[in-house]
Amino acid sequence: MPGVPSSCGCNACRQSKKKCDQLTPSCSRCTRLGIHCVGSGERRYKFISALQLSRKVPSSRIDQGASGLVSALQVTDVRFELGIYGPFMAELPRRLGRNEALDASVRALTKAYPSVHSHQLTPDMYKSYGEALRHLCTALGNPATATSIETLCAVYLVVICQGWIRRGADFIPSHGEAIAHLLNAAAERQDWQGQFEAEVSNTLLVLVLLESFSNHKIKLDTRLWASSTSPAIAKPFRPPMKGISEIECLRASSLAAISGYTRNIQGSLPEIVTFHEVWQVDLANMKALLSGMSNMAASELTLAQRRIHVRRQTGYGTLLLLGMMANWALRAFVIGDMHTLELEIAMIVDEVVELAEQAIQYRPLGSSAMPGFINAAKAMTTNMTKLDRLEELLQSYQSDFPLCH
């Protein structure tokens, strides 16, 4: 910390920030003002650090993307946690630099993430989103990168960004068919063997299976779930409570079977009846798991408990969605007691309303699945009071995203 010479002017001139002529015994200014001149000609030193510590800034777009993603991943408020989109998200910073589509999609994600908080859209956000789409198209057109795990991640991140910045638009394209194609290619090659690859493929498999209920163009290789030991989204709901088994309806193989039923409902009625019976047991078990937390505010739960609560709410909502489909099929073909089925669908709609009301505390990301459940419930009732309440909840959830205003 070396000394650096400072001004040699007198104290009065230094204090007034005036130039001092340093005459002795009194400088001209002090003589003119008739004040005592002190310190004229004295050499003073100020000390500064010889080592200038500059804050390191990311040196490349890859570093910037990684830095932004790491910062976003450090958020531990379940309302804004990126971990809601899959456990593999924490691994993404280490995957950058291998695939331009993934790098660009991470940049788009980090540019769009602030809009989840602020509800403000910026030109830079749209620019990054457009660049991600361009790089993704290039990657999908290149045989060397088209079916890589990084490209699959890039597709998923683009889907997430799309939901943030385009929700409420008149038309939002689906990427379910593209994701299904990539998953099928992986099943054919069987070269995605690591934990990261398994987490990515299982997460995307469940999303595509759910979309396949309404999009019959999606066709998936049976090896994707036949050879997998993963219980898909059932895994977070393995209950520690004695006497309650795993939630069977949330296994990937079960979702795949249901997808098949939707393509040929009349020919699958016996299987739908069996599924409906299993679903009733699963719904009761899942409700038991959820009820212990349902009467508590988020502030009363630990972070770990809030994360579990969010997962269980999503799982319960998914079960309600599956129940709507089975109930509709049984009523449409007059299978079983109609009065009982009518009471059941009314109960399901009521449960969706209650679930959506409880999940409001985790908006926006922690409850991002709720609009889908609400929309499905709206199609299952003609009760105007319930429809009005469902619409109120839907508008409330959609207000979290810019284009919904």
From TrEMBL:
Residues 9-38 form the Zn(2)-C6 fungal-type domain. This is Zn(2)-C6 fungal-type domain-containing protein. It comes from Podospora fimiseda. The keyword Nucleus applies. InterPro entries: Osmoadaptation_assoc (IPR053178), Zn2-C6_fun-type_DNA-bd_sf (IPR036864), Zn2Cys6_DnaBD (IPR001138). Pfam families: Zn_clus. Keywords: Nucleus. SMART domains: GAL4. Gene3D superfamilies: Zn(2)-C6 fungal-type DNA-binding domain. The keyword Transmembrane helix does not apply. GO terms for molecular function: DNA-binding transcription factor activity, RNA polymerase II-specific; zinc ion binding. It comes from the Eukaryota.
